[in-house]
Fold this sequence. Notes:
By secondary structure, the chain is mostly helical. β1 (461-464), α22 (468-475) and β2 (478-480) form a beta-alpha-beta unit. It contains 25 helices and five strands. A five-stranded mixed beta sheet has the order 2-1-3-5-4.
Amino acid sequence: xxxxxxxxxxxxxxxxxxxxxxxxxxxxxxxxxxxxxxxxxxxxxxxxxxxxxxxxxxxxxxxxxxxxxxxxxxxxxxxxxxxxxxxxxxxxxxxxxxxxxxxxxxxxxxxxxxxxxxxxxxxxxxxxxxxxxxxxxxxxxxxxxxxxxxxxxxxxxxxxxxxxxxxxxxxxxxxxxxxxxxxxxxxxxxxxxxxxxxxxxxxxxxxxxxxxxxxxxxxxxxxxxxxxxxxxxxxxxxxxxxxxxxxxxxxxxxxxxxxxxxxxxxxxxxxxxxxxxxxxxxxxxxxxxxxxxxxxxxxxxxxxxxxxxxxxxxxxxxxxxxxxxxxxxxxxxxxxxxxxxxxxxxxxxxxxxxxxxxxxxxxxxxxxxxxxxxxxxxxxxxxxxxxxxxxxxxxxxxxxxxxxxxxxxxxxxxxxxxxxxxxxxxxxxxxxxxxxxxxxxxxxxxxxxxxxxxxxxxxxxxxxxxxxxxxxxxxxxxxxxxxxxxxxxxxxxxxxxxxxxxxxxxxxxxxxxxxxxxxxxxxxxxxxxxxxxxxxxxxxxxxxxxxxxxxxx
Length: 553
């Protein structure tokens, strides 16, 4: 009787999960917090297990036309869906955000010399270099966002290619759909950021390591994979210095899953790969030593930028949101299945040391995922965009596990996963558009009018604000924070300096602080009304240059 009740409850919850995704996808669900679906599927799974995992006697198969459709055609459909979602979301967040503007400013600086407001030496040059190419095509936000789309489509394609090698092409299509349906990935896909593209490169790194071990008898395959590895690592590193933590997790997981001897067996090729890697890193290490006095100074400086309340608060954050807030209701179930399968393989590995490299792969992938959460959680503040790699790896493991354990119902299970993921993509897009994007867009309705009102007329200008990157991008002026301004020497002669504060702004001084900064200057004050969340802006323009002693007070 108890099992029957559990089965009925599981069926009701599963039906509710599907219904709410459809409701959100068609524009309903505004009453849900953040338009996020309730985790009905996560609740249904343990009830289904309690009911004894009953399986239907009748085997259901997907439509014949779907079975005849080549996987690459299905992939093109998913990529088209991703492009359509990207285009739809641009209208909801048309302005560059804080992080986007930092990289955009550097790209424009290389293009025409416009000040690179917000840039710091702890940021890698890869994305601005790509942005420079985009700005050569069209000098505007649209070109940078199109580049972001191309990078996202590349990562989704790499995910398919790698997942197809680890599973099957049709399962790989389901993996890509699940990744696209997750809130963490879809939130940042439309933006000009490093995280999505870096994930694709990191996934290639993981794949090459598995290839080395699973083709250990093929000397040519091993040599090709190991010598390609440093090239991919260098590309990922110069795109995002933060991948250092991911690479540390991958390295530790590879040693733990396969054992040091498995790598020492390819000693000469490993040493050659390390030599290539060191040679590629040498310019960076010399530059970092010149700037900071330490070869790893820039990497450590990037870590220091984390907004941590304490060491480990990122790990606490990941524990609190795992896996639901990373991948959504459906993705969370699949990721959990992947973890369970890896735990089962780990148990087998403890009992038998003679497992093949292919059998050890789930342990390697899951260990990489878990260590990534730990390493990044200890080194930085927690953000979903930092941990896309673990989401991908656990999703691959989950899809493979569910397919293998479904027996003759495998086509129906994969079809159901794909269909629900297909509905979840527009539902997640609705959540992003109406819950996540309005806040930065409303903030831009305050910063954008101010930036345009103070736009450069060809003469040097410096804006001091808590929103320096985006203000710099839309004004064409240099921009710094108040803390940076206090540390500045006297601005070059002829530079117009304006101090900007908002009614509800951040990182800005009070009245006494402004008085201290304007002491010894003739000033002109004006108020710029805005309809954004920051309220009206007060702009104090300094009309006379201070002495050196005044500027350094």
